[in-house]
Amino acid sequence: MTSAADTGQRVAKVYELRLQIAIRSVQTEVSRVLGRITDWLAKHGINRSFVEELELVTAEALNNVVEHAYLYAEDGEIRIVVSLRPGKLQVQITDGGRKFDGPPPEKKMDVEKFSFEELPEGGFGWNLIRSLTDEVAFERAGEKNRLTLTRNLPETAGVE
Amino acid sequence: MEVEVSKIGGITVVRLCGPRLDAAQSVRFKEALRDISDCGADHILLDMSGIQFMDSSGLGAIVTVLKQMGQAKTLELAALTPIVAKVFALTRMDRIFRLHDTVDAALSSSVKAAG
After folding, report:
1. What is the ipTM of this complex?
2. pLDDT in tens, A100-127
3. What per-residue confidence (pLDDT) applies to B1?
4. What span, in angstroms and rounded, lies between the C-alpha atoms of B47 and A48?
5. Which DSSP string do the residues of B10-56 spell out, in sequence order?
6. How far off is chain B from A12, nearest CA to CA, in Å?
7. Nearest by CB to B67, which of A27, A117, A132?
8. Number of domains within chain B
9. Distance from CA of A4 to the nearest CA of B (A)
């Protein structure tokens, strides 16, 4: 895992804090980077429930990249930028894997309607991401996929 | 994936030592639970108190275990931490599984049901 601050943008805005990390497309690396992100957010005074929810949506997005963009190939690069501004928490995830067409249309899954044998064992990820974020944006940046998840924070959850 | 198994009456309590039940752990979790179920456990209570983080892969793995055990056997969960409870609620899987506040509450409700 390497840390880098070389996106070419100025980081030193007074009210913005950023954490930039690049990892390989491996599930154990995903677990490790999530721990790093949650420590960083907790250190900057973000409430535990927001930290946990951000960890969950970031996990879902990173798992999607490992599974669908890189098809479990372990040599893919994933770049993660977490930024913290007053009232806003944002995670941007960039990968160079298979082209992604953007988040699937929203569909409600009513698990109570399924028979026992047909209970879903997956397909929950995007519902969780949408439930726990205020904005989901996807763009194709050159040969890369870039997903940006934004969560609005109340004053009380804020950045010191 | 480390688990502690205790037999209490007819119930096999499986404590997941955690702290994570995520994509990196889900295959090993399924294997561990299949071993326990194959050893004759037909009523399993998962003690989730040690799990500080669970993603949808972890949830999916629990559903897989439920389906593998089949409807003749029982799988219940107890002592969910807040983020784990949230994953169950947001996916409505809290309607599918029996969830208990604590292991003790789960055990005493089973005793009552049996008595």
Report:
1. 0.93
2. 999 998 888 889 999 999 999 999 999 9
3. 84
4. 22
5. TEEEEEE--SEESTTTHHHHHHHHHHHHHTT--EEEEE-TT-SEE-H
6. 32
7. A117
8. 1
9. 25
For residue range B44-75, list pLDDT tens digits in order.
Answer: 999 999 999 999 999 999 999 999 999 999 99
Within 13 Å, how many C-alpha atoms sit on residue A24's CB side?
A: 7
Chain B nearest-CA residue for A113: B96
Whether the predicted pLDDT of B79 surpasses 90: yes
Q: Does B56 touch chain A (CB under 8 A)?
A: yes
Report the first-to-last Cα separation within chain B, whole angstroms.
35
Residue A1 has what pLDDT? 43
- pTM exceeds 0.80, yes or no: yes
Q: What's the CATH number where B11 sits?
A: 3.30.750.24
Report yes or no on B48 lying in a domain: yes
Give the domain range for residue B29.
3-106
In-domain check, residue B114: no
Q: Where are the domains positioned within chain A?
A: 2-157
CATH topology of domain A2-157: Heat Shock Protein 90 (3.30.565)
Residue type, B7: K
